[in-house]
Automatic annotation (TrEMBL):
<dbReference type="InterPro" id="IPR042197">
    <property type="entry name" value="Apaf_helical"/>
</dbReference>
<keyword id="KW-0433">Leucine-rich repeat</keyword>
<dbReference type="InterPro" id="IPR056789">
    <property type="entry name" value="LRR_R13L1-DRL21"/>
</dbReference>
<feature type="domain" description="R13L1/DRL21-like LRR repeat region">
    <location>
        <begin position="531"/>
        <end position="657"/>
    </location>
</feature>
<dbReference type="Pfam" id="PF23559">
    <property type="entry name" value="WHD_DRP"/>
</dbReference>
<protein>
    <submittedName>
        <fullName>Uncharacterized protein</fullName>
    </submittedName>
</protein>
<dbReference type="InterPro" id="IPR036388">
    <property type="entry name" value="WH-like_DNA-bd_sf"/>
</dbReference>
<feature type="domain" description="Disease resistance protein winged helix">
    <location>
        <begin position="270"/>
        <end position="337"/>
    </location>
</feature>
<feature type="domain" description="NB-ARC">
    <location>
        <begin position="17"/>
        <end position="183"/>
    </location>
</feature>
<dbReference type="InterPro" id="IPR027417">
    <property type="entry name" value="P-loop_NTPase"/>
</dbReference>
<keyword id="KW-0611">Plant defense</keyword>
<dbReference type="InterPro" id="IPR032675">
    <property type="entry name" value="LRR_dom_sf"/>
</dbReference>
<keyword id="KW-0677">Repeat</keyword>
<dbReference type="InterPro" id="IPR002182">
    <property type="entry name" value="NB-ARC"/>
</dbReference>
<dbReference type="Pfam" id="PF25019">
    <property type="entry name" value="LRR_R13L1-DRL21"/>
</dbReference>
<dbReference type="Pfam" id="PF00931">
    <property type="entry name" value="NB-ARC"/>
</dbReference>
<dbReference type="GO" id="GO:0006952">
    <property type="term" value="P:defense response"/>
</dbReference>
Length: 1088
């Protein structure tokens, strides 16, 4: 581990090249089970890796797909799956994220797929966007094959770097074995005989960490000498499977599992290798399939039992924790599960044909295909218990055939208990799903589904319904999306929809008394929609009640019996129509009688018009276990409860409570002990009358106040003039429109852990003690100072030599007044990665001091952004000296008429909203490093000069007077992406470069034909044609094309190429991703 950590810390790169000079790559090579992934997980989570701007973890496995890997990278960054389909759009999105960022990428479990050159070509597509990362970026690869390291070395054109993992030393392996074998044992020295046996067992494990963990879990099952001897004397002769030699050890661990857990584990082979398991969802599947045995413990639910099963499997290392509530299974254990469940489980991936003979014992089937013929064969499996069906229609008309096939499956396979359906085009699930009378779990991923089948409400054994399609604000949902008699499903535990409005429409929802999550219950003054429906819903874990103004009296409020719901963890209470109501007393009485149970962990109250706290909130013992509290839009609430005494409170949000004048001593607690002992995040917003944190009677010593606070956000509290000292663990502080005068850093510790400081709209502040505290602000990386007109100092009372001996290690600085750059300690800066100057209407030019400052940071500045500077007439004259600058963004600078020389290192230039700019400089063609150029809303721009020779992406949008493209365009042999949007005077496209892969043409009012050269573009994969009203026909298209979108062009064109019907449809029907539509184009396509 130390060797890899040192490699990560070392920014040097002996083998720099033009393309991947900023990136180093190290391959971790070792047999299966040797701990490659575990090692990198420890490194990935290490504090040291926070030095990287971005971190990504991608499991590649043996089903390598270029688009999937890039999508996984983006998901790892953004925590959501990108809704992009083409390789080019995915690459472009990743390139944007990578621009001038130092990243760490882990590519886990890479296999050799095909011949080396084809693999190499695929990985070139994956790694191309990463070339835009900044110096010091690192890629870590795990693989079982030496050839992978050689292949990557060829891709990035560097000498291969390999770290071989040969297994643990015997003493290290024994330590790991004992950690798992004696888990939850207070003193392992009390088991000396067992320790001796462990010493013999470890000799048979060949240093494998996986074997040590798994066998440790087997031993931990029974701390009995006879059991341990049985394990020692078991046959450890290795069965060679692929490249690993520990298969018999893993099988032994399976043998010692309790019987119910064996099925739970083996069933997991239905999923792909490296599948990310959601703990709760997997437990639901186990319950639906009958793997969970009922408990005799009173009050223990099936979910509780399943949770215990899962935790045992985790403890025995059958699962490894990946993220919060997310887990993975080692590929060798996945192979073991496949081996065990081979007679009951079968998978079809891509377009593999079903084998001629499938045992009748098959109970679990997973099919991923585009081939309807494969699906037609499913109906013959009469004994299926679970079916995972993922189909991608090539043509819209295929969905009618799919519907017929589903009908046959539902009629034939009536024993199905678990059903997963995925199809991006299917609009209806056949009513014949009603034949599946044993169905307990239904999960659907059908983006175009218009409503659920009416027969759904007749499946009385149904326990879990999950609809996981994306939802966007403003999306219309039919009132009858759910059957009107959904309340018949009394066994329903879970109903999850992307929106909650449909759930609120269920009449008499109180009959669903097994429901655990009610994400939205909208009260109405009608029978079947009143709060009394909640009376017997005692299994609820999560509850959100809206429109509480419809509760008319205390008896109605009491009828909900919230206090009796002993599993309720998450409660949200909302009133609506705040402005027109003046029922303070009623709101107070209602809230008094909505007392939650003591087990509650999350509480949100919104729109409450009462002036006081509810009685139950004043008694700390009644809300003792709460971890998260959010109070919003409580416009008349005056006095806050004693939140400071809550021992487990981690998150507190107070928003729009304009009557709160001070956070009284009751807020902090009634004693002089530690206040808010567990609070990590505090957000205060819109407390306009707030004057003091606490009254004079409270002793708030630094070490007693917020000992665990890491994030503090204060906004729109203009009367608040003082802040307490920085909390000892505070990492992020943001203040906006606060009346404070300075920052009190306190004197608790030698170093201040603050990483992010945001100061905005603070007119009273005159100084910030950055220079005075420079020796202690060792962690500060992100600094934003805006709209502080009276700020005259960043400290500086220290001796000048002290300031020179220490430097802030800022990476990102955002300001709106460049004069701040002349204040110490910024004045002495020599290192910064990103500078943003924005939102200044008075800045005309840069001062001499600012110009000198740019020169000082010239070797480190990677990214410069100038935005919303309404009076700026010139860019810094020192711009050409910024030798490390990779990205320059100039947005909304309307008075700028001329671009100066730009540094030769520049890779990305983005100019938008510079209306006075009449031409681009001719020297642009000499900037050979420039690969991305984006030009938009430049009203006077009539023509373009010759462009840089290695340009990779060109975006032109909202250029009203541009009437032609540069003549050099066909010679740009590196250009892969061309986007032209809202260029109304453009009448034709000349020849295009052969390298082009993605072409988007949008809102070109006078373009009436496309160039004949399109058919000769061998690399073109995506063509997007949107809003071209004069375009009547298409030229011949290249065979390489994979995606074609035609949207709102001339009616004649739309008719000729109408999907499945037009006279020329046959000319484009073979393109896999073809779409001809009159619908409005998606925002992401029309944005340029």
């Amino acid at each position: 581990m130390a060797i890899i950590m040192n490699w990560l810390r070392n920014p040097s790169n002996k083998y720099q090249t033009t393309l991947y000079g900023n990136i180093s790559l190290l391959c971790i090579v070792g047999h299966g089970g040797m701990g490659k992934t575990t090692l990198l997980q420890h490194i990935y989570k290490d504090e040291m890796t926070k030095e990287f701007d971005l971190k990504m973890w991608v499991c590649v496995s043996n089903n390598f797909d270029v688009k999937k890997v890039i999508a996984d990278m983006l998901e790892s960054l953004k925590k959501e799956r990108p809704h992009l389909e083409t390789l080019e759009t995915l690459q472009d999105s990743l390139r944007t994220e990578m621009m001038s960022k130092k990243f760490l990428l882990v590519l886990d479990d890479i296999w050799e797929e095909e011949e080396e050159e084809r693999d190499k070509s695929k990985w070139e597509n994956v790694l191309a966007p990463l070339a835009f990362g900044s110096f010091g970026s690192k890629i870590l690869v795990t693989t079982r094959m030496n050839s992978i390291a050689l292949m990557f070395a060829k891709v990035i054109k560097k000498k291969k770097e390999i770290f071989r993992l040969e297994g643990l030393e015997e003493d290290e392996c024994l330590q790991l074995l004992n950690t798992h074998a004696f888990a939850d044992v207070e003193n392992s020295n009390d088991h000396k005989k067992l320790s001796a046996i462990a010493g013999e067992i470890v000799k048979k494990l060949s240093g494998s960490p996986l074997a040590a963990k798994v066998i440790g879990g087997v031993l931990n099952f029974n701390l009995d000498e006879r059991h341990w001897m049985t394990v020692l004397e078991s046959n450890f002769r290795t069965t060679k499977l692929g490249q690993n030699y520990i298969f018999s050890i893993l099988r032994l661990s399976y043998t010692f599992l309790p019987n119910p857990l064996k099925s739970c584990f083996a069933f997991c082979c239905i999923f792909a290798q490296d599948h990310v398991f959601d703990k709760d969802d997997l437990i639901r599947m186990w319950i639906a399939l009958g793997f969970i045995q009922p408990s005799h413990i009173q009050g223990e639910t099936m979910e509780d039992i399943g949770g215990r099963y899962f935790d045992i499997l985790v403890k025995k290392s059958f699962f490894d924790k990946f993220e919060r509530q997310k887990y993975k299974m080692h590929d060798l254990l996945h192979e073991l599960a496949q081996n065990i469940f081979a007679s009951e489980c079968f998978k079809v991936v891509d377009d593999e044909e079903l084998p001629l003979v499938i045992p009748e014992t098959i109970r679990h089937l997973s099919v991923q295909t585009k081939n309807l013929e494969v699906l037609r064969k499913i109906g013959k499996f009469k004994h299926l218990h679970s079916l995972f069906l993922s189909y991608t229609a090539i043509y819209a008309r295929d969905n009618q055939d799919l519907g017929n096939i589903l009908i046959e499956i539902f009629k034939a396979s009536r024993s199905i208990r678990l059903l997963y359906l995925s199809d991006p085009l299917l609009e209806m699930i056949p009513e014949e799903i009603g034949y599946l009378i044993h169905l307990r779990y239904l999960k659907i991923d059908l983006i175009n589904l218009t409503k659920m089948p009416r027969s759904l409400s007749n499946l009385l054994h149904m326990q879990f319904i999950i609809y996981c399609a994306p939802w966007f604000p403003g999306m219309l949902v039919a009132d009858d999306f759910l059957p009107c008699d959904m309340n018949k499903l009394s066994n329903l535990h879970c109903l999850e929809l992307p929106w909650n409005s449909s759930i609120s429409l269920i009449h008499g929802i109180g009959k669903l008394n097994s429901l655990q999550n009610l994400n939205e219950f909208c009260l109405r003054n009608e029978i079947g929609y009143r709060i009394e429906e909640l009376e017997h819903m005692n299994d609820l874990h999560k509850l959100k009640i809206k429109f509480l103004e419809n509760v008319k009296d205390v008896n109605e409020a009491r009828s909900a019996k919230l206090f009796d719901k002993r599993n309720l963890m998450d409660l949200s209470l909302e009133w609506g129509d705040i402005e027109s109501r003046n029922l303070i007393d009623l709101d107070e009485i209602v809230l008094d009688n909505l007392q939650p149970p003591k087990c509650l962990k999350n509480l949100s109250i919104q729109g409450y018009t009462g002036a006081r706290s509810p009685t139950w909130m004043k008694n700390v013992s009644l809300i003792h276990n709460i971890e998260n509290i959010s109070l919003k839009n409580c416009m008349k609430w005056q006095t806050l409860p004693p939140f400071g005494q809550l021992p487990f409170l981690k998150y507190l949000q107070l928003c729009d409570m304009p009557k709160v004048k001070q956070l009284l001593h009751k807020f902090y607690g009634n004693d002089k002990y530690c206040f808010f002992p567990s609070l990590e995040v505090l957000h205060i917003n819109g407390l306009k009358a707030l004057e003091n944190w606490f009254d004079a009677g409270v002793a708030a010593e630094d070490e007693c106040l917020f000992p665990c606070l890491t994030e503090l956000e204060l906004k729109d509290c203009p009367k608040l003039e003082e802040l307490p000292s920085l909390a000892p663990k505070l990492k992020s502080l943001a203040v906006d429109n606060i009346g404070w005068k300075t920052l009190n850093c306190g004197c608790i510790s030698n170093s201040i852990p603050l990483e992010t400081l945001v100061v905005s709209r603070c007119p009273n502040i005159t100084s910030l003690p950055l220079a005075d505290e420079i020796a202690r602000l060792v962690a500060l990386r992100y600094l934003i100072i805006k709209d502080c007109p009276n700020l005259i100092s960043l400290g500086g009372h220290q001796e000048v030599e002290t300031i020179k001996n220490y430097q802030l290690k800022l990476t990102n600085l955002t300001i709106n007044d460049p004069s701040i750059l002349s204040m110490e300690p910024l004045r002495s800066f020599t290192s910064l990665e990103k500078l943003t100057i924005e939102e200044n209407d008075e800045l005309v030019s840069f001062s001499t001091e600012a110009e000198q400052w740019f020169v000082k940071v010239s070797s480190s500045l990677y990214e410069l952004e100038l935005k919303n500077l309404q009076s700026l007439q010139s860019l810094p004259s020192s711009l050409p000296s910024l030798s490390s600058l990779k990205s320059l963004l100039v947005h909304s600078v309307p008075q700028l008429q001329l671009l100066p020389n730009i540094p030769t290192s520049l890779q990305k230039l983005d100019i938008f909203g510079v209306e006075s700019l009449q031409c681009l400089p001719s020297f642009l063609s000499t900037v050979s490093s420039l690969t991305c150029l984006s030009l938009g809303r430049i009203s006077f721009l009539k023509s373009l000069p010759d462009l840089p020779p290695f340009l990779n992406k060109l975006t032109l949008f909202h250029l009203e007077n541009l009437d032609c493209l540069p003549s050099c365009l066909p010679t740009l042999s590196s250009l892969q992406t061309l986007v032209i949007q809202n260029v109304p005077k453009l009448r034709e496209l000349q020849d295009l470069p052969l390298s082009l892969r993605y072409l988007q043409l949008t809102s070109l009012d006078n373009l009436d034909h496309l160039p004949a050269c399109l058919v000769s573009l061998p690399s073109l994969q995506a063509l997007m044609i949107l809003l071209l009203p004069k375009l009547r026909e298409l030229p011949d298209l290249p065979s390489s094309l994979k995606d074609l979108l035609i949207n709102n062009c001339h009616p004649e064109l739309m008719q000729r190429y109408r999907m499945g019907e037009g006279s020329d449809w046959h000319k484009i029907a073979h393109i896999p991703g073809v779409n001809v539509s009159d619908l409005e184009p998606l925002d992401q396509l029309s944005s340029g």
